[in-house]
């Protein structure tokens, strides 16, 4: 009942706020539907290109070898297939893009093993890099079996990548998921060799987590939880990021992502109950609905980029039938 009431509140909030000028969808277009199932995007602006990574698989559950496809566009109008990243016997999930500069593009992925069955036999994150988007290094394993480094972000002040990794069986090593999961912050100089930075003491089965940094170096984390009422959390910490302050938000999250805008404000995207892909105005302690993007059914996986006074969003949705990849341009009234 509580989840139902949260859904009603969220959808009514999105409907009301969509009528206000805080956020306006300028354009939306389908940019990819060539795989049997197309999902889990991420987006980055790199070398004057929009780079979109997405997952292709036989179905949403992905009992097989999910692959990553990379698309590029100069303006967002026309998208061109550029590369495929795969590993035999491994299901790549949730590709995430990051970069310290224009010299090297980094892609983090979850690597799940099913051994031809529908039962998860193990997982370990992977990373691949590229200097031109077209050619990628063979994916290499990160951290330990059972970990999932969900996204990495470059911290310019610390000159390091940071990312939060969750583990569904932190004590037993699996294969059965435990009642409580771990969430830990890691750092890396090269996105390949990672060191523990701090445990993130979040309860309620924390998992998919995006960490970003403000200009003064403050870290902000947005965390999905699969227990504790499915309510997400926002965390903040000052360097060296060992002491965190946490706030529970009244919304369940799915594939949470956010970015820090030029004026210092933050905007987030996530799958919400409905289901829809929604955008939110975010602070260190609040999460305010802005607008719902054209979406429904099997949807989520938003990638976010701010460029030339516009928010650019990629995501997947099945509101028009087959699960496909969409791209929206959104104007935010408070950012000049």
Q: Overview of this structure, please?
A:
The protein is mainly β. The protein is built from one helix and 25 strands. The strands form six sheets. Strands 6, 7, 8, 9 and 10 form a five-stranded antiparallel β-sheet that branches. It has a four-stranded antiparallel β-sheet with strand order 1-25-24-23, with no helix packed on it. β16 (219-225) and β17 form a beta hairpin. The chain is globular and about 50 Å long. The mean pLDDT is 92.
Count of alpha/pi helices: 1
**Helix- and strand-based class?**
mainly beta
Low-confidence blocks of residues: none
Q: What summary fits the major beta sheet?
A: 5 strands, antiparallel
Q: N-to-C terminal Cα separation, in Å?
A: 41 Å
Backbone CA Rg: 18 Å
- Could you give the order of the helices and strands? HEEEEEEEEEEEEEEEEEEEEEEEEE
Number of strands: 25
Write down the overall mean pLDDT: 92
Strand portion: over 45%
Helix content, binned percent: under 10%
Based on Cα principal axes, name the global outline: globular
List keywords for this structure.
single chain, 336 residues, mainly beta, four-stranded antiparallel sheet, 25 strands
SSE arrangement:
Layout: H1 2-18, E1 23-32, E2 37-46, E3 49-57, E4 67-73, E5 80-85, E6 91-99, E7 105-113, E8 122-123, E9 126-130, E10 140-141, E11 147-155, E12 160-167, E13 182-188, E14 194-199, E15 206-213, E16 219-225, E17 233-237, E18 245-248, E19 257-260, E20 266-272, E21 276-282, E22 287-293, E23 300-307, E24 310-317, E25 324-332
Antiparallel strand pairs: 1-25, 2-3, 3-4, 4-5, 6-7, 7-8, 7-9, 9-10, 11-12, 12-13, 13-14, 15-16, 16-17, 17-18, 19-20, 20-21, 21-22, 23-24, 24-25
